[in-house]
Amino acid sequence: MKKLVLILSAIIVIWIIALLSQNQNKITMPKSVEKGFKNPLFYRPLEAYSDTWHNVLTPYSITVFQDPVDKSKPHNALAESYSCSLVENEYDHIKYDCYICAEVITYQPCHRECIIYKIRRYDIEMNWYIVTRGVCDDETLSETRIIDLN
């Protein structure tokens, strides 16, 4: 009787191991992630043109920060970072789907938002690119930023 239980136990263990090893090949990896921007200009800081808010972009986040009150003390700057997914990655524009929890800056509760950055033109005199930052479904809510090459 003990031999029969031992043999059945061994068969069950071997069967479980076989099933587990067979299923390991069926693990699906998530869709590959964007490795980087098509246009390397988007890696440069986007400086404010008409206000004090600057932007630093990565394929996975947007960090918004304000000029420090006292330039000699950078810790006086207010900053927030949004977790984002890069939805479009073109040479002249990028589009994000972001989860924004920035009540200090936007005065809104946490929400999802589509944000787009478009390179509009190069200003040869000032040696910078003009970029607009806007909400995807409303072009009137755009703000101007610059990518300074000086």
Structure description:
With 150 residues, the protein is an alpha+beta fold. It has a single domain, classed as Lipocalin (Beta Barrel). It is built from two helices and eight strands, in the order H-E-E-E-E-E-H-E-E-E.
CATH architecture label: Beta Barrel
| CATH fold descriptor | Lipocalin
DSSP strand content: 35-45%
In the sheet with the most strands, the strands line up as 1-8-7-6-5-4-3-2
- The computed structural class is alpha+beta
Cα-to-Cα separation, first versus last residue: 86 Å
Give the radius of gyration.
25 Å
Order of helices and strands: HEEEEEHEEE
Largest sheet: 8 strands, antiparallel
How many domains comprise the coordinates?
A: 1
The total count of strands amounts to 8
Q: Poorly predicted ranges (pLDDT <50, ≥5 residues)?
A: 23-33
Put simply, the count of helices is 2
Mean pLDDT score: 77
**What overall geometry do the principal axes of the alpha carbons give?**
elongated
Helix content: 10-25%
Highest-level CATH class: Mainly Beta
Secondary structure topology:
Elements: H1 2-24, E1 47-48, E2 53-58, E3 61-66, E4 79-89, E5 93-100, H2 103-106, E6 111-123, E7 128-135, E8 138-148
Antiparallel strand pairs: 1-8, 2-3, 3-4, 4-5, 5-6, 6-7, 7-8
Salient structural properties:
single chain; 150 residues; alpha+beta; Lipocalin; 8-stranded antiparallel β-sheet; 2 helices; 43% strand
